[in-house]
Amino acid sequence: MNDRFPPSRPGRRSVLAMLALTPVAGALAGCATGGSRQSPAAAPTGSAQAGNPFGVASDAPLEVVVFDGGYGQEYIKVPLDLYRKKHAAAKITQSATQQIQQSLQPRFVAGNPPDVVNNSGSNAIDYGALVGDKALLSLAPLLTAPSWSDPAVTVGDTLRPGVVQVGTHDGQFVVLNYSYGAYGAWYSTSLFEEKGWTYPQTWDDYLGLCDKMATAGIAPWTYPGQFPYYMFWWLASLIYKAAGPEVIDKINNLAPDAWTDDRAVAALRAFEAIPANGWVLKGSSGLNHTDAQMQFLNGKAGFVPGGSWLENEMGDSVPKGFDMAICRAPSIGKDDVKPFGSLCAKAGEPYVIPRSAANTAGGLEFLRAMLSTEGAENFIAKAGTLSSNRDAKPPKDAKHGLTSIDAALKEAGDNVFGITVDTRDSRLWKDIANLMGRFMNGDIKADQLAKQAQSLTDKARG
């Protein structure tokens, strides 16, 4: 469930963590809550009424545990204050840890978990076990409750596309992913302005631009060969643009003809021109993520794959006036299913309410406060990434990359998609990503990538 971010923010790169589970984590994965079928505790409640839709008892204690990662803890203070103002008699305890599983799994087993858990990072409690044990409270009531900032609008109506779908397991919405990130590739708008280049909307124009870059001594592409899964989002974006959600759904659900669908193969064949023309920076196969991003920032490459975190991750290394922006997938052909401006985007930074928590009503109320416009805009300002609340706006002094993502999401509307192979089968994700690395190196062609990815998918499906 975690979005894939850099090591400084472990929740972002859960892919690697999932591939290298410690013996302790592996042993506990099958017994997240002791193997029992959890029943909700008798949570103290008051009367549901205007301003208190879940009937939170005024003096019921509330405990919130936050993952101590790159987002920090500052962002949680505003929703805590909002909750405190409405429930002044309640004792509120908030703590943070990077050892979510180690510190909280025993409490799940004992039946006394916190009321709200930010189950994120490389030491998150296994979601498969939590769902299998029915240890998580359904968050469906949250969706129909009046939003904190505008009671005339439900909380569900304030959420960005895909938030509910990503948090739904076995037909139940049980995970609220609070952040919202875009994935794909990046370019420098200031470089484009300097060279007189315009970001292309068609694939032919895209290839023409890459040729101009190469002529100017700039490699059109670089990528982190040590972490080739970065290419997954951009190649998937081309597939979504050409084929729409049907093929992406097949990829996510490990369907028998996912990668070998003619439309998916056509998109991969289009991108094959990049490595075939020698338009990948030499040595990219040996780069890690920050190395590749530095090549991009130093003007050695025109495009680099990545997600919303890139600008913050590189910090002071980003040259003044670089003005990076998220790329939109150009049109592959006239029969494309989705319009220009479609985007790979997904909610992350998961929050859950344990079913056996003492104050489940208070947990729902706290999530409602988090999703307030005030709470969400504070999160954007403090964390440097968007919130799953679609009404929350970046601050006026937001960095260029963040404002470009916000604008791109507005342009995309509902034409967004997410890749979930990583959370469904981390080994498959890694194996297909390795094929994409070979594809970028020119070692295999598009047809081979599609055939071998499908073979791996069929094997993983069983």
UniProtKB/TrEMBL annotation:
It holds the Pfam family SBP_bac_1. Belongs to the bacterial solute-binding protein 1 family. Gene3D superfamilies: Periplasmic binding protein-like II. SUPFAM superfamilies: Periplasmic binding protein-like II. It is found in: Cell envelope. It comes from Spongiactinospora gelatinilytica. Its main location: other. GO terms for cellular component: cell envelope. Residues 1-29 form the signal peptide. This is Carbohydrate ABC transporter, N-acetylglucosamine/diacetylchitobiose-binding protein.
